[in-house]
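Q: Got a minute? One more chain.
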Amino acid sequence: MEVTARAPGKIILSGEHAVVHGSVAVAASINLYTYVTLRVPSPSSSETSDTLTLHLKDMGLEFSWPIGRIKEALSESNDLDCSSPKTCSGKFAESISALVEEQNIPEEKIALASGVSAFLWLYTCIQGFKPATVTVTSELPLGSGLGSSAAICVALSAAFLAFSKSVSLDKGHKGWLDFGDNELELLNKWAFEGEKIIHGKPSGIDNTVSTYGNMIKFKSGSLTRIKSAVPLRMLITNTKVGRNTKALVAGVSERTLRHPDAMTSVFNAVDSISKELSTIIQAPAPDDISVTEKEEKIRELMEMNQGLLQCMGVSHASIETVLRTTLKFKLTSKLTGAGGGGCVLTLLPTLLSGTVVDKVIPELETCGFQCLIAGIGGKGVQVSFSGSS
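A: Always. Here it is, folded:
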């Protein structure tokens, strides 16, 4: 039998960088997903494989470990109480690293090592030492600020928990299934443990958005789930320019030390934008006129937020190219995430002519950018079962 889990990526609609300095920020899920399929041999089948295999389909990479080798390395970690998420630390972290190093990951793909480590930890803690094949595919570009690592951790946790005793799901159901609230809470905690392996000290925002979907308002470590009443659609342009998030965050802090009064005003303005944005998004829009009015307000807030991000010094030539290109078509854009490259959001109004999109995308692609269209604020993680139990 097999289960497939899908978990969405995320964008920051407003408040990036300013949130570090106490402002409100708003994040949302996008309907671009990472998929994880877990296939376990049936007890009645003739399959005799005694290995755990991870297939990263998009990259054409496959890793496998004999179950005996994993058991030898991690036996002390395996109490199989998946109802209580635990952190990979100390000797367990060393053992996981050793298992990953044995795979001889190509030098140009070495950044994947932490993700493979997260996979091994989540699998052995939740499923134990059982043979299985796990396949990962994704619609999200890696390392572009769209929450790809969190989506992988959420989808892995969902697939592994779906075959555990800690969740109750109808395995005979056809189509996508939602988890219950308590199950989502458990799943989110496990995904956060995976994120810690990859990022060290993640905020928890990305995995929470991917788990629950919709939108989240956050400030000073406090997260509030909110639901959009407006069917927003965005063009997401991946500039493919890598960025150093830590350096960008440090740069904003240094600018704040040099110009404390001015930067405090910038952060306060961003705070107001995020609060107004969350209010607009949650308010009902009973007709097309209301939707258009809301979209116009959101467009203006995005424009203001981008200007303030430029004040913080986190824009980039590639981002400015996207802004100029979309502005030619009377569309409004802003960077999302750390800036310095990465991705740019462009609001696509409901009444926007399809010909405009057909013109702007090729122009952006001629600059070497990748363009994706996504709905904003949709469902969180889901699973689907197939095969006989």
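A: The chain has a mean pLDDT of 92.
Q: Perfect, thanks.
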